[in-house]
Each structure stands twice: as structure tokens, then as C-alpha cells.
Design goal:
The structure holds three protein chains of three kinds. Chain A is of the alpha/beta class. Chain A has two domains: about 230 residues, Thiamin diphosphate (ThDP)-binding fold, Pyr/PP domains (Rossmann fold); about 120 residues, Rossmann fold, CATH 3.40.50.920. Chain A is about 40% helix and about 20% strand. Chain A contains twelve helices and 15 strands. In chain A, the strands form three sheets. In chain A, strands 3-2-4-5-7-6-13 form a seven-stranded mixed sheet, with helices on both faces. Chain A has a five-stranded mixed sheet with strand order 10-12-11-14-15, sandwiched between helices. In chain A, strands 1-8 form a two-stranded antiparallel ribbon. In chain A, α1 packs parallel to α2, α1 runs parallel beside α6 and α9 packs across α12. Chain B is α+β, with helices and mostly antiparallel strands. Chain B has a single domain, classed as Alpha-Beta Plaits (2-Layer Sandwich), CATH 3.30.70. Chain B contains two helices and four strands. In chain B, the strands form two sheets. In chain B, strands 1-4 form a two-stranded antiparallel sheet. In chain B, strands 2-3 form a two-stranded antiparallel sheet. Chain B is globular and about 30 Å long. By secondary structure, chain C is an alpha/beta fold. In chain C, the strands form two sheets. Chain C has a seven-stranded mixed sheet with strand order 2-1-3-4-8-7-9, with helices on both faces. A two-stranded antiparallel sheet of chain C has the order 5-6. The chains are: A alpha/beta, B alpha+beta, C alpha/beta. Chains A and C meet through β2, α3, α4 and β9 of A and β2, α3 and α5 of C. β9 of chain A pairs parallel with β2 of chain C, so a sheet runs across the interface.
């Protein structure tokens, strides 16, 4: 298959189109502007619609409307914009509508900075909106992985009738790498969902899509969703485990941080250190087993590397480590980037210094 | 002639207020929902103009130009 | 001589609206027109938050609940994906003229090919009668207990007038539902808006002046009189823009 050298944001935009996305609404915000820019000309080529919304609030609600028609809908933004989308994402969850939301994250809090950061982990995994719901969060570390995850994101969104988030940082959005694109998914009338507003299947009954429910039904929905989240954990957790067999120290990192951390792990291995890495690919469901099942008779420490301060994944790690060894953290924040030497030195200090 | 569905009616009285023949008035009986509802006191005078139905928020009044 | 049957686009049940609420009449008018145009299977009702949301329970046909103020954005997403469907939003004044001002102005300005049905009763009915962007000067509400004071709360927003200065909308009109003439005119206006949409002409906006007996603290008949003496002189009914006729 043909390989293409492409920028991260544009690669996931193309992957979305090939994954069947036919509607995009979004509002300009750095560092994700290449996604709407690309889709503004690409979607019309495949009979899709592109709308530049008047705000992130409007954009996510356009996606809500588009998703209700059964079309595959996408929006993208960065931290401050994702905060504004919180309302609409919660409504998607409530009305059980599938949609994909991309966050190309930047330094926070507040307007923060426009430089890359992994500062939206907690927002993505714990609180994408009010009311207590979860969404699957995919965190690619390479552009090929970003393409593959985006391409299949609607399969998850539709299977579970729930929003799905792709969480990347500004580094991955801006870098260029070689990527291979899968074939264009051909979605036919058979793909029309049994709950959607489309009547192309000739249905005569009426459909109501509602984000408000009578109390007993709402509780029932929430109970069902709770069971679904447990199921995701069993069926859909994705993780890369790297050199864990004999590891005495385990680095945990995702996305861009995992790429930098992997270099440090390899360097330390060359120096004879027994070190490995757990790289969550799904941040929600979090790969609990990979950390819970470590051999803590051997493991002396778990090191959380994130491009944010304070570390946000730490609580999830600690819940699995359960005080069986110390948990350390290292990061940069505010748009200051992780670098090979900095991460290597931080880990080496812990591993070699026995801290 | 008009038919008033007492189960839909909430007794707002708009039909009474706008009936050009003044032949509707609030009845003495309550509906199953507990509302007083209008009755036609002079069926022969009704011209089936439909203004009562036009003004009914609940679509509780149906009009037909045939005699019952 | 007239013949009138309850519209098929309403479920066979009493509405959840209070006695005399013109929201119910507004909904019924839309249902009447959709029946007349034989669009009950083709229409999509995008309801918003407030008493307008009660439409969710009585509308027979495809219906979707939008977030507060966001119905025009939701309708944009729907219409862009299903351009052959008859799409309309049903919104109240707090929803459309306060929290949803950005969405309504932008959808109108893009000339989205759907219809907005705007029920203006000058209050937040669902939440118990707080001041709305359309509450009249001097009108009492639970957050303007001494009457709306323009020095601190500004003036009632005239949405039709705002819509009419935009380039894209094709039909903008306001009707008062407190008299048979007003209701008949409103029905014609709704029909015209839907027909324009079905012909692919663009954005249409129908404002319906309604009441709130419960929160205005009046009997239903008295609200109609109040509308004559207070609401209508400020919110003047009429056609504010009719691009097709001008052309």
C-alpha cells in the first residue's frame, strides 16, 4: 500500500474520512487547525459536509445533530475548546449518540499556551462533562497508530452508542511521519442505525432522540452504561507492554511522552538496567491489569512520565500499584517539552540512585 | 357541528371568548382530569365556523360541517 | 363552514402545558401545517430546553432534544446530513434570545435551510418565571420583582428586527396568537416558511407571541388582553423580511 509523508493533524483527518466520517464541525484553535482546514476541502470530495461553527459549543451541537442522523460525525479542538464542548459531549452520552472528538492538547490551565502538553488526561478520562459518564479515550504515540485508531474510532462509538475521544498532544499533531492509509470504508444504506433520524430504510415508526429521561429510565440508562464501562475494560483495553519480563523499574507513559521515555528505557537497558515500560493506548479504559499483575517481588519502582505537572495519570497508576512499591513522577509542563536527556536523567537518577 | 373532547380540554375558555355566536359556555361538570369544560348550549345556532377549534391550544375541538 | 380534525402530528393526549398556554397552540399550529403539507413522516422537530422541551412528549413524528439554546446548531448538523427532510427548531425566548443568541444569529447568517419556530412569552416559564431577554419594561418576574428596569437589565430583545438586518434569511415574520386573526395569519406564515424550506430557499424565522398564564399570574383570558395592551405594541406583528416577494 502507498505510504505518505504527512503531518499528524492532516493524517488523522484523512483517516477519519477513510473511516467513514461524513460530517465535521469545528472552531479554530491552535494546535489543531490543520484538521478543519484539511476537511474543509476533503469532505465535499466524498459527499460529506464541513461546517465552521461559530464556537466550540455550536460545533459539538452540530455534531450532536449530525450523529443523530446516523452519519459518522467528528469534531476536533484543543483544551480550552474541549472545555466548551463539555456540554455537548455530555448530551451525546445522554442521548446515546456516537461521535468522535479529537483533542490536540496544549499547555493549561486557562488559555495556557499553544505549545504541546499532556494536560488534559484528567478531563478526558474522568470528566468530559457533567453528570457522570465516561468515553473511551485513545492515545496514539505514532502517526500510524493515530491513523489506525481514528479509522476505527466510529466502530467503537457506534457499537456502544457513546462518544469516543482521540487524545493527542500538539507534538503529534504537528510532526510529520510516514503513514499508510487503509482503504476507504464504504458505508451503504445497510449501515443506517435502527435508532437514527434517517428514514432511508423506509421505516414508518417515529424516533425520539432525547437527552432528558424520566427518572426511572435515566437510572436504568446509567446502570446499563456502568455495566458497559466494565465491559470496555475486559474487551477493549489496549496497551503496549515493553521489556517487562525481568523489569525492576517500570515506566508508565502514553502518547508523545512514551516515545521519549522508550528512548530512555532502551538507553538504560544498554547500560544494564532492568527496566521496562507500560504504554496505555486506551487511557479509558485504563490498562489496570498491566500494572496490577506486575511481579512486585521484583519491581522496585514505577515511574510516571507525563508532559504535564503535576502528573495526572498518577492516581490511576497508584490504584493498581497499591503501595507495593514507590511511584515516582517526572514531567514538563505549560508547553515546555520533554527531551531525551531530561527524561533519561530523571529516570536514571531514580533507577541508579535507588531513590 | 363541533365535538369537544373533555379529556383533552383544560378549561381555558378561549373557545367561549371567541365564539362569534356566543353559544359556548363553561359547563357545570368536571372532566376526568378535574377541569370544567365548555358545552354548546345552542347546537342549531352553530355555523361550524371553526374559530373555537382554531383557538383551542389542546386541539380538543373537532369541527365537521355534517350534522351528527 | 369549516372542517377541522386534530392533527396527526400530535400524539392523542393532552399536552403537559398549563391551561391556556399558547405554547400548546403554537405547537398545534405547526402540527396542523405539517399535516396539510403531508410532511408528518418527513419532518424533524428539534426542540430545545424550557417549556418548549415539552414538545418532546406530545410530538408524533421524528423529534430530537437539543441542549439549551443549541437547537439551531443541532438543526444545522441534521439538515446538512439529511437535506431532503423538513427540519425545524421549536424554541422559547430564554432559549433563543439569551443563551442561544450566538447559535441563532450564526445559523441565520449562514442561511441554513431550516425553519425556526420561536415562541416568545417574555418569561422563563419552565424555571418558574424569571426575567427573560424579552420581558417587557416594567413587567414583573421572579428576578425583577419590582418590574424590569432598563437601567440595570436593558431592553426587551426584538428578534425579528435583528434577523431582518441579516442578508441570508428569506422569510422573517412575527405573529400574535391572542386572536383568531393572529392565529390564522400565523398559520399562513408557518406554511409559507415550510414551503420556502422545501423549495430549498433558505433560512426562515417565525416568531409567535405567546403568553404564560401561570407566571404572569393571570387567568388565560386576561393574558390575551394583556398581550393586546402591552406585548403587541412593543413586539409589533408583521412580515419583517420576505426575500421572495421583494425579488
Amino acid at each position: 500500500m502507498e505510504k505518505k509523508f504527512m503531518k499528524g493533524c492532516e493524517a488523522i483527518a484523512e483517516a477519519a474520512v477513510r473511516g467513514g466520517c461524513r460530517f465535521f464541525a469545528g472552531y479554530p484553535i491552535t494546535p489543531q487547525n490543520e484538521i478543519p482546514e484539511y476537511l474543509s476541502w476533503r469532505l465535499p470530495q466524498v459527499g460529506g459536509a464541513f461546517v465552521q461553527g461559530e464556537s466550540e459549543v455550536a460545533s459539538i451541537n452540530m455534531v450532536y445533530g449530525a450523529a443523530a442522523t446516523g452519519k459518522r460525525a467528528l469534531t476536533s479542538s484543543s483544551g480550552p475548546g474541549i472545555s466548551l464542548k463539555a456540554e455537548g459531549i455530555s448530551y451525546l452520552a445522554s442521548a446515546q449518540l456516537p461521535a468522535v472528538i479529537v483533542n490536540i492538547s496544549r499547555g493549561g490551565p486557562g488559555l495556557g499556551s499553544i505549545q504541546p502538553a499532556q494536560s488534559d488526561y484528567l478531563q478526558a478520562t474522568k470528566a468530559l462533562g457533567h453528570g457522570g459518564f465516561r468515553a473511551m479515550v485513545f492515545a496514539p504515540a505514532t502517526l500510524q497508530e493515530a491513523v489506525d485508531l481514528t479509522y476505527n474510532a466510529w466502530e467503537y462509538a457506534e457499537r456502544y452508542r457513546n462518544p469516543v475521544m482521540i487524545l493527542m498532544d500538539g507534538c503529534l499533531g504537528a510532526i510529520m511521519e510516514e503513514v499508510e492509509f487503509p482503504e476507504m470504508k464504504e458505508l451503504t444504506a445497510d449501515n443506517v442505525k435502527e435508532w437514527c433520524l434517517d428514514r432511508i430504510d423506509g421505516r414508518e415508526d417515529d424516533h425520539m432522540i432525547t437527552p432528558i429521561l424520566p427518572e426511572p429510565l435515566l437510572e436504568k440508562l446509567n446502570i446499563g452504561k456502568g455495566m458497559q464501562y466494565k465491559m470496555w475494560e475486559k474487551l477493549d483495553t489496549k496497551v503496549e507492554e515493553f521489556m517487562l519480563e525481568d523489569a525492576e523499574y517500570v515506566v508508565v507513559a502514553y502518547g508523545i511522552a512514551a516515545r521519549v521515555a522508550k528512548e530512555a528505557v532502551l538507553r538504560l537497558r544498554e547500560e544494564g538496567c532492568k527496566i521496562g515500560m507500560v504504554r496505555p493506548i486506551t487511557l479509558y479504559p485504563f490498562p489496570k491489569a498491566s500494572l496490577n499483575n506486575l511481579d512486585y517481588t521484583k519491581v522496585k519502582g514505577v515511574i510516571d512520565i507525563e508532559m504535564t505537572i503535576p502528573a495526572q495519570m498518577r492516581e490511576d497508576i497508584e490504584l493498581q500499584v497499591k503501595d507495593r512499591c514507590p511511584v515516582y513522577e517526572y514531567g514538563r509542563s505549560g508547553g515546555m517539552l520533554l527531551d531525551d536527556d531530561g527524561v533519561y536523567e530523571a529516570i536514571a537518577k531514580i533507577v541508579k540512585g535507588g531513590e | 357541528m363541533i365535538t369537544i373532547n373533555s379529556l383533552m380540554c383544560k378549561g381555558c375558555g378561549y373557545c367561549i371568548r371567541f365564539c362569534p355566536k356566543h353559544i359556548l359556555e363553561m359547563g357545570k361538570e368536571r372532566s376526568a382530569k378535574g377541569f370544567f369544560y365548555p358545552v354548546n348550549i345552542d347546537k342549531d345556532a352553530c355555523t361550524s365556523c371553526g374559530i373555537c377549534a382554531l383557538m383551542c391550544p389542546e386541539a380538543a375541538i373537532e369541527v365537521s360541517d355534517k350534522e351528527a | 363552514m369549516a372542517e377541522y380534525k386534530r392533527p396527526q402530528s400530535l400524539k392523542p393526549m393532552a399536552t403537559p402545558y398549563c391551561p391556556g398556554c399558547l405554547h400548546a397552540l403554537a405547537t398545534r399550529l405547526v402540527a396542523d401545517v405539517i399535516d396539510e403539507l403531508q410532511q408528518s413522516q418527513n419532518a424533524i422537530n428539534v426542540v430545545s430546553v424550557g417549556c418548549s422541551a415539552l414538545n418532546l412528549y406530545t410530538w408524533k413524528g421524528d423529534v430530537i432534544g437539543a441542549a439549551h439554546g443549541r437547537a439551531p446548531a443541532v438543526a444545522t448538523g441534521i439538515k446538512r446530513c439529511l437535506p431532503d427532510r423538513l427540519v425545524f427548531t421549536y424554541q422559547g425566548d430564554g432559549d433563543l434570545a439569551a443563551i442561544g443568541l450566538a447559535e441563532i444569529m450564526s445559523a441565520a447568517n449562514r442561511g441554513e435551510n431550516f425553519t425556526v419556530i420561536f415562541a416568545n412569552n417574555q418569561t422563563y416559564g419552565m424555571t418558574g418565571g424569571q426575567m427573560a431577554p424579552t420581558t417587557l419594561i416594567g413587567q414583573k418576574s421572579t428576578t425583577t420583582p419590582f418590574g424590569r428596569d432598563p437601567m440595570t437589565t436593558g431592553y426587551p430583545l426584538k428578534m425579528c428586527e435583528l434577523m431582518a438586518v441579516l442578508e441570508a434569511p428569506v422569510f422573517v415574520a412575527r405573529y400574535a396568537l391572542n386572536s383568531p386573526k393572529g392565529v390564522m395569519d400565523a398559520k399562513k406564515g408557518i406554511r409559507k416558511a415550510f414551503e420556502l424550506q422545501m423549495a430549498g430557499k433558505g433560512f426562515t424565522f417565525i416568531e409567535l407571541l405567546t403568553n404564560c398564564p401561570t407566571n404572569w399570574g393571570m387567568g388565560p383570558i386576561d393574558t390575551l388582553e394583556y398581550m393586546n395592551t402591552n406585548t403587541i405594541p412593543y413586539f409589533k406583528p408583521g412580515i419583517y423580511k420576505d426575500k421572495e416577494s421583494e425579488a
